[in-house]
């Protein structure tokens, strides 16, 4: 009784074999679960020189010990793999109820190697693991795939995580979609599934998830529930969804617009969370055991679906100069159906728009062209026309046409919806993220804009490396635990440590939890260094280093790499080239 399901399934798709083994105690203590399990398995199983889209790559689905234990917002699972987009070890998390059901099916993790000779899907069914022929669902969208698998097994309670047609076509900016609308995004895990001829992972489970100390856990649950309920950010997320950020970020002149050419969008109000609520919104939706319910169900003109969340709203909106909310929502729905990563897809179209406007490529699309955006997105989803090139993301497209500097990416992954020129700490988080351009491996927007846990000056560089390191390590631990990152607006490391101790029976304090997070971060960094992804990639696109912002309070600012990176490496116990020292690895017991 330690909140774990107790078993890990190892699948070899080439041989068609399954082995089930107990979850090792040392793995639980040193890496907790979720992202920690994923990065450890990748390190142990993936050789340095392999092709990410070959049978040599490995894909890990893993929940955390707090997933599915009834703790508010304890709903997450992670998908880890070697990214075909960035070449980094990536771990992407998603909510819904899939992670909970995977545990109730009896598994903490599923480790998938090899390549099936023909399309298959995997079914975890109350302790049993089976492979099924997927000929009937190959080529189907994510919602069709989900419905058909539920029909085949005559059970609507089965939960499905799958790829869409874009993953089958090996687009490097694809994700895995669970329960039709929840995306484990960034880095191209959908293409890895496609390369393995694996269409879906389906789960059905009724097994009990027993925790170490029910009474103690109930006390901590009660405490953290009160903290989340009292939190103003959680309330705003419930009322307006994540798109509540549109107006806030725009008012701070850090909303990237027209492929980061400016940071203020005139049409922001039209695509804001407030406007979503007044127009296309039907009702909120939450993941398993969520008391915040930041999800949005939309319903307009016969179109229903979920979203748009803040990031897709921005990527197809301000970043493309578009203020038509319905077109943005349609684009978001296309991404869900085809399994495209919405941030990368929108940002890649924004890159195309700038290339076209500057005459670097002959194409009729321009900023603000909503119809053109939807047409190009459909081509990307199916790899037709110019979509054949765009389906591999902005960096490869812009480089092929002679202008890699117009890809707003880090480690070839498109940046999200915050301009780092007016956010020095967040810029450092982008540059040093171990999975490429990303905002959720250290959400520095929390202190630099939202004032949680305290308000920092976003233009200041002093002390930012320490803040970024703390956020990175804490986030890695949260991602390992199975908790939603949005809890971090209200909770601190002591809260997570208390939850972990009560649920697992393994004694954690705040320092011990942070140490696990630091171990995961360093292991992910080492994985990348082994593949030649080093210091030269810890930077931002040239525009953000050299072209100052032109408006508002951050006018005149660029991102100050030199003031931040050296101190960050030193704080991490890395050498001047960003390589973890022997002493650091010994301290973290990494081998
Ligand atoms: S806050 Fe949002 S993302 Fe997090 S668990 Fe709740 S509904 Fe899911």
List the keywords.
14% strand; 17 strands; 40% helix; six-stranded mixed sheet; binds iron/sulfur cluster; 591 residues; alpha+beta
Structure notes:
With 591 residues, the chain is of the alpha+beta class. 40% of the residues lie in helices and 14% in strands. The strands form 4 sheets. It has a 6-stranded mixed beta sheet with strand order 2-1-6-3-4-5, with helices on both faces. Strand 1 and strand 2 form a beta hairpin. The longest helix is centred in the last third of the chain and has 20 residues, at 510-529. The protein is globular and about 60 Å long. The protein starts with 6 loop residues before the first strand and ends with a helix. The mean pLDDT is 98. The protein binds iron/sulfur cluster (SF4).
Topology summary:
Layout: E1 7-12, E2 17-22, H1 25-31, H2 34-45, E3 59-63, E4 77-82, E5 89-94, H3 98-104, E6 109-113, E7 120-125, E8 128-133, H4 142-152, E9 159-162, H5 165-168, E10 176-178, E11 182-184, H6 189-195, E12 198-204, H7 214-229, H8 232-240, H9 245-251, H10 273-278, E13 281-285, E14 295-300, E15 303-306, H11 310-316, H12 325-338, H13 342-357, H14 370-382, H15 387-390, H16 394-400, E16 409-410, E17 413-414, H17 424-432, H18 445-450, H19 464-481, H20 493-504, H21 510-529, H22 542-546, H23 561-572, H24 582-587
Parallel strand pairs: 1-6, 7-12
Antiparallel strand pairs: 1-2, 3-4, 3-6, 4-5, 7-8, 9-10, 9-12, 10-11, 13-14, 14-15, 16-17
Helix pairs in contact: 1-2, 2-19, 2-21, 7-20, 11-13, 12-14, 13-16, 17-19, 19-21, 19-23, 20-21
The structure holds iron/sulfur cluster.
Iron/sulfur cluster binds next to loops.
């Amino acid at each position: 009784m330690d909140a774990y399901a107790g078993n890990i399934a190892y699948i070899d798709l080439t041989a068609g074999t399954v082995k089930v083994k107990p979850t090792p105690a040392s793995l639980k203590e040193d890496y907790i679960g979720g992202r920690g399990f994923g990065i450890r398995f990748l390190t142990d199983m993936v050789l340095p020189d392999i092709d990410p889209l070959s049978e040599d790559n490995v894909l890990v689905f893993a929940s955390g010990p707090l997933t599915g234990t009834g703790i508010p917002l304890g709903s997450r699972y992670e998908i880890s793999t070697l990214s075909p987009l960035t070449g980094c070890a990536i771990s992407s998390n998603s909510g819904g109820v899939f992670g909970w059901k995977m545990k109730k099916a009896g598994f903490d993790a599923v480790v998938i190697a090899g390549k099936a000779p023909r399309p298959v899907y995997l079914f975890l069914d109350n302790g049993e693991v089976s492979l099924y022929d997927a000929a009937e669902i190959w080529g189907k969208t994510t919602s069709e795939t989900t419905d058909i698998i539920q029909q085949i097994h005559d059970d609507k309670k089965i939960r499905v995580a799958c790829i869409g047609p874009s993953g089958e076509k090996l687009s490097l900016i694809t994700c895995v979609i669970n329960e039709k609308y929840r995306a484990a995004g960034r880095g191209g895990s959908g293409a890895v599934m496609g390369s393995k001829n694996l269409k879906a992972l389906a789960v059905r489970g009724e097994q009990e998830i027993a925790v170490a100390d029910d009474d103690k856990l109930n006390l901590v649950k009660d405490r953290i529930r009160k903290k989340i309920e009292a939190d103003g950010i959680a309330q705003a997320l419930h009322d307006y969804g994540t798109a509540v950020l549109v107006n806030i970020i725009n008012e701070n002149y850090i909303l990237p617009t027209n492929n980061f050419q400016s940071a203020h969008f005139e049409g922001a109000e039209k695509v804001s969370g407030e406007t979503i609520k007044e127009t296309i919104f039907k009702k909120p939706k939450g993941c398993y055991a969520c008391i915040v319910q930041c999800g949005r169900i939309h319903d307009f003109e016969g179109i229903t679906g979920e979203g748009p969340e803040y990031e897709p709203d921005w990527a197809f909106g301000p970043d493309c100069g578009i203020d038509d909310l319905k077109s943005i929502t349609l684009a978001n729905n296309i991404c869900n159906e085809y399994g495209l990563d919405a941030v990368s897809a929108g940002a890649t179209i924004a890159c195309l728009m700038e290339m076209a406007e500057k005459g670097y490529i002959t194409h009729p699309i321009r900023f603000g062209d909503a119809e053109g955006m939807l047409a190009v997105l459909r081509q990307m989803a199916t790899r037709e026309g110019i979509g054949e090139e765009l389906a591999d993301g902005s960096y490869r497209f812009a480089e092929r046409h002679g202008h890699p500097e117009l890809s707003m990416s880090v480690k070839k992954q498109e940046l999200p919806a915050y301009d780092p020129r007016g956010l020095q700490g967040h810029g450092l988080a982008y540059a040093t993220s171990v999975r490429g351009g990303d905002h959720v491996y250290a959400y520095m927007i929390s202190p630099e804009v939202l004032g949680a846990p305290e308000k920092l000056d976003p233009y200041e560089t002093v002390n930012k490396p320490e803040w970024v390191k703390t956020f990175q390590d804490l986030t890695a631990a949260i991602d390992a635990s199975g908790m939603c990152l949005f809890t971090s607006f209200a909770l601190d490391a002591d809260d997570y440590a208390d939850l972990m101790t009560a649920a697992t029976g393994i004694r954690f304090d705040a320092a011990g939890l942070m140490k696990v997070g630091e171990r995961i971060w360093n292991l992910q960094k080492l994985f990348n260094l082994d593949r030649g992804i080093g210091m030269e990639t810890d930077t931002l696109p040239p525009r953000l280093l050299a072209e100052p912002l032109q408006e508002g309070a951050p006018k005149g600012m660029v991102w100050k790499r030199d003031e931040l990176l050296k101190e960050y490496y030193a704080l991490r116990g890395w050498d001047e080239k960003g390589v973890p020292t022997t002493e650091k690895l010994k301290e973290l017991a990494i081998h």
